[in-house]
Design a protein that fits this description.
The chain is of the alpha/beta class. It is built from 4 helices and 8 strands; from the N terminus they run βββαββαβααββ. A hairpin with an 8-residue loop joins strand 4 and strand 5.
């Protein structure tokens, strides 16, 4: 039954999903994209009709050549619109603990990712946007607390 344009008038949001991988000593996995200067956590845009957790798994396959499952939700972050992009929701899932052999085993198949490595939060601040470092800190806290962090533009609000 047609909805008279109601659905067409609903607001649109970007949706992205990332995965927090960490080392036993608290470093986090960052990837170096080929298409922009800032490093990121593994993940990306969720496609139409795709659940965020499914998008996270798909992105891990595309970016790192792995089929690792994702764990529980760690962060929900609302990001204001910028650079002509609409506002968005970013979901961060737990990827678990990696060692150096795990990282060395990643395969960058399509050229989207140039490299990956484990970095401290301080190093992440220099490699990525400030919002990413704040989101990573919130995700690490959520792991320790067994909670879900709510963020606004990367900054934890709850």
């Amino acid at each position: 039954m047609p909805d008279g344009g109601y659905a067409a008038g609903l607001p649109r949001k970007r949706v992205a999903a990332g995965v927090l991988f960490r080392s036993a000593d608290g470093r986090v996995l960052l990837v170096e994209p080929s298409y922009k200067p800032n490093w990121e956590m593994p993940g990306g845009v969720v496609e139409a009709d795709e659940a965020p957790w499914d998008g996270a798994v798909r992105e891990l396959g595309e970016e790192l050549g792995t089929d690792r499952p994702v764990g529980r939700l760690l962060v929900v972050d609302h990001v204001r619109g910028y650079d002509g992009r609409p506002d968005g929701m970013i979901f961060v899932f737990d990827g678990g603990v990696l060692d150096d052999a795990d990282v060395a085993g990643f395969v960058f198949r399509d050229g989207e990712i140039l490299s990956a490595g484990m970095y401290t939060l301080e190093q992440a601040r220099g490699l990525g946007k400030p919002m990413l470092a704040e989101r990573l800190a919130a995700a690490l806290a959520a792991v320790r607390e067994g909670s879900v962090a709510l963020c606004r533009d990367g900054v934890r609000i709850s």
